[in-house]
Design goal:
Bound molecules: pyridoxal-5'-phosphate
Shape: globular
Radius of gyration: 22 Å
Number of helices: 15
Distance between the termini: 38 Å
Largest sheet: 7 strands, mixed
Number of strands: 15
Length: 406
Amino acid sequence: MSWLDDFGPRLAALDAQALRRRRRVVRPEGGMRLNVDGESLLGFCSNDYLGLAGDPLLRQAVHAAVDRYGVGAGASPMVSGHSAANAALEQELAAAVQLPRALYFYAGYPTNTGIVPALVGEGDALFSDALNHACLIDGARLSKARIQRYGHARLDQLAGLLGASAARRKLVITDAVFSMDGDRVDLAALHALCEQHDALLLVDDAHGFGVCGPQGRGSLAAAGLTGPAASPRVLYMATLGKALGVAGAFVAGPEGLVEWLLQQARSYTYATAAPALLAEAVRAALQCTLGPEGERRRAQLQAAIGRLRAGLAPGADAAFDATGWALRPSETPIQPLGIGDSGQALALSERLRRQGLWVPAIRPPTVPAGTARLRITLSAAHRSADVDALVAALRRAARAWPPVGP
Ligand SMILES: *Cc1c(COP(=O)(O)O)cnc(C)c1O
């Protein structure tokens, strides 16, 4: 029997473990409402934290860009794909995060898998937080450097590993805001450790850019490590498909380091450039994010976060408290509701769906065993009534918990 015949049984094994993942076909219905496989649902699952993804400002920017640039970029940025729009965006991104220079990529995943191997290789040492995003982990593997994992946000453990390393080149990689937990790492303390051990720090701020820091300038600005205080040993990476509402990513930092990445990152050189229409959409989103409208949206987002946390706080509802479900500590739009058991998390997610709410259950292996959760994400586009509907549905579910039957 050929090994090609194995895939059927292997898929069946995924089914047996309830690990097969299915996509749903969605059509936006305005705000955070989506038509999902024919059913209208209020979504608490998007990373569109500022509600920019469907904004008329961005639509207009795209229409104008299409008229001017057409659709595709046609080639790698190293050949003829580096449009005037992409060049202007790089300047504006560097200014937004108050760092000397930025390089604009078509997506976040290939940014990390391209830049990590450009920075370290065989014989070098890489230090990685246990809860880092998959693309940082994959970039680390591609690099062939020796990977040392430290416990999540365990800077004491990291200090020990850095101190014990004999490698000349040491790179520390971390998410700034962790995508499944919503918590943040202390970047100032991490930077101080890197100073002490002559390490370079790469920060992935996919969930912080646009949301955290003054004017949404991101987690590095929040930590006071930008502008005149910018560090020669920090590279900042962020994506543009979350709070900025478009697609793409960038890396920013010291002039020489960013130029090195431009020269060496294979995912940059050997891929077609992001279309100018996307760069123009990001430029419009960036302008909005940094201005008073961005401030207004961040205030709305904070209000939604506060409302959810108050509604589900211990003591607010006895039946809810009795389930043992609890929001994890988080000040960001990612508000995970800890459930524990995978089957229960799935059942709760399904129950909410029947009430018109879409809150995905996140289970192992995406998160550690025994820590299944509902990953609630909030947006400036959620109205108070939307948040209230979610709180009420969770309290109702708590009254009927555990569900009867198998
Ligand atoms: C989403 C995400 C990425 C990937 O970015 P894409 O633009 O979606 O490819 C990278 N890092 C983190 C932490 C993310 O959450």
